[in-house]
Amino acid sequence: MIYLNGKFMPIEEAFVPVLDRGFIFGDGVYEVIPVYSRQPFRLTAHLKRLQHSLDGIRLNNPFSNDVWKKILEQVIINNEGEDQYLYLHITRGVAKRDHAFPENVLPTIFIMSNPLLQPSQELLKSGASAITAVDNRWIRCDVKAISLLPNVLLRQLAVDVHAVETILFRNGFLTEGAASNIFIVKEEILLAPPKSNLMLPGITYDVVLELAEDNQIPYEIREITETEVSIADEILLTSSTKEIMPITLLGNKPVGDGKPGELFKRLHALYQEYKA
Ligand code: PDD
């Protein structure tokens, strides 16, 4: 069952008018929230980032955090599966097509739950492949906007060559993946690009840095060059749906020795322990 504008219904019965500004302009924001053992993970942080995204597009938050929590609880109850991921989507609503914000229009609010599938054991053992590309997105990548056309095109570049992700660089510096954050390991130090308007402040990114801090894993948050990525000992990918994944092939060059590295193994184990 999905949630649409205050009602629960089967997804087949859920429709949005064609004049919805999400459909016409991509005028909206979204969140993806993992649910483990039927409990939302880092919910407060996700709701805080939702508020940041709404502020970024000047759309009022339709609900208080308490109301969001109650609705999301209901979505989880209405869906099977111990582990799920919630997709929450808010647009500026339905109005005559005009770029200017409409007045007195209610936002469209849509929430669905899907099964949260762990990356396969095979993928965790052998690692995944990635390619690189120039980050040609807008400069408000900190807003989780539903207008994802550049991300879609960038991700497809990877899919076209059977890779899982496209790692992005702006002016020669690492930003993130098409739908993930990227870390590298250099001389046993975990390196993370600093949060800015050029990347999404990932909730999993925060978890990984907290795990590093709490477990005496040396880390640095600093600008990372494309050259550093190309000669990294390890490359790690994080997102709410993929957790932590090792990238072992970049283009057609192995990363480090071409196998998931020690720091990946450690952080992955710590993450599994932490989320339980
Ligand atoms: N994407 N950067 C981008 C561009 C993303 O789309 C995502 C997540 C992340 C990782 O953020 P988090 O750890 O909070 O999931 C970074 C989600 C999963 C998606 O669009 O499906």
TrEMBL record:
This is D-amino acid aminotransferase. SUPFAM superfamilies: D-aminoacid aminotransferase-like PLP-dependent enzymes. Its cofactor is pyridoxal 5'-phosphate. Coiled coil: none annotated. Pfam families: Aminotran_4. CDD domains: D-AAT_like (cd01558). One of its GO terms (molecular function) is transaminase activity. GO terms for cellular component: cytosol. Belongs to the class-IV pyridoxal-phosphate-dependent aminotransferase family. It comes from Nitrosomonas supralitoralis. GO terms for biological process: amino acid biosynthetic process; carboxylic acid biosynthetic process. Keywords: Aminotransferase, Pyridoxal phosphate, Transferase. It comes from the Bacteria.
